[in-house]
Amino acid sequence: MSLLQPAHVRFAPSPTGTLHVAGARTALYNYLLAKQTGGQFILRIEDTDQTRFVPGAMEEQMNGLRWLGIHWDEGPDVSGPGAPYIQSQRTDIYRAHAEQLVEMGKAYYCFCTKERLDALRREQQTLKRQSRYDGHCRNIPLDEAKARKAAGESCVVRFKVPESGKTTVRDLIRGDITVENSTLDDFIILKSDGLSLYHLAAMVDDHLMGITHVLRGSEWIPSLPKHALILRAFGWEEPQWVHLSVFLKPSGKGKMSKRESADLKAEEGHSIFVRDMHELGYLPEAVLNWIVLMGWSLDDKTDVLSLDQMISGFSLERLNPAPAAVNFDKLDHFNGVYIRALPQAELAKRIKPHFDQAGLKADEAALLRITPIIQGRIGTLDESVDMAGFFFRPTVEPTPESLIPKGMTASAALAALQKARSLLESLPNLEHSTTEPPMRKLAEDLGLKPGQLFGILRVAVTGQTVSPPLFETIALLDKSLVFERLAHAERLLSQT
What we know:
Radius of gyration: 32 Å
Number of strands: 11
CATH superfamily of the largest domain: HUPs
CATH class of the largest domain: Alpha Beta
Strand order of the largest sheet: 3-4-7
Mean pLDDT: 95
Low-confidence stretches: none
Number of helices: 20
Number of domains: 4
């Protein structure tokens, strides 16, 4: 499988929805192969099925690729020798190639009505036979078919599949895939309105755009014989075929479904959609690292890989056709690794949109002050708001119950809090080194565990039971704000 020539590859999504991990992985593998070999990565939009077209889907998919750092050399917004790169703008090209196949005797005009085809299907179902076209129009003389078409009779163009023999296609990671031609239908390649079906359009485009390798999902394996037959009918060179592994549910049981992602997001804060992962606070570097290892490995031991390392190390030989379970724990792991590796200024920049979305006024300078104490404690960027949003809120509203540690009464918690506030007021400043030692001594004097006293202070100052380190937090907050929050907590406890 060694590559001597630059690979020309394509990622060809349909604009029917948002970009998901399977599509992103396909795009990534194609991109890596192109970049490693000095070839071209083409983005092509396959919108031949206009009934499934979703407005805005193309733009959203392109934005998802850009966010991941996958940039194309040719595409809808980057002209090249294969332009245009949106199939609905190439209908004349497909129509001409369909007519060429008819003239070559490799395809034919079919005049069968919907009523006849429905009746044929019912008959086959009754007889428990495979539903397939019966070749009714296959042998109509070409001159007769042309005359009927010219007279205005509605027709489609069907590809003439060989009636006997086998079709064998080589997949680089799966080996030979062979089907009996008798099991294949004379499939439609051009509809009665002159619009191409996917099978013809994709193969014509692959040829005209010089595609050398087709890396795509395994769901296309059943279509592989049709695609090979079209290419061979024209006498065109076939690309190298690679059908990637299937994604399984996190449990490893059953194929991962796009429909299940909504439940995942609601229940676990996970999603298979790239847009959601962006919104949930995942880093694109982590997402790329996660998806590249679901079906490929560098050396069975290296887990953390930059995009440059992926490019230099990528090989078709290391692709694995075995199903890959979607493991969100690994995604969370990678995200934590990459968050901790970010320069603090970069982390401040990346978390700012999440604070903005939460309605908190926090500029990058202010965020930079807190990044040292939260960087090792957040797994996703959006967790920074939950962890440190209290820094930018004028008030916090703890519940009285949260101010009372286990094993203490409200009156005992109030007394401890009052003594802690008095101690803090007596100190020259609220720096960490100034506050923690005497506060530990106070806990000892009161017969409390440090965690009990610190827990009261934490909830009073932050409004939450989990926060960045307490004394670093107190040092970063405005002094007057600290004492306002302590006083507020005292009032809550006194009313309990």
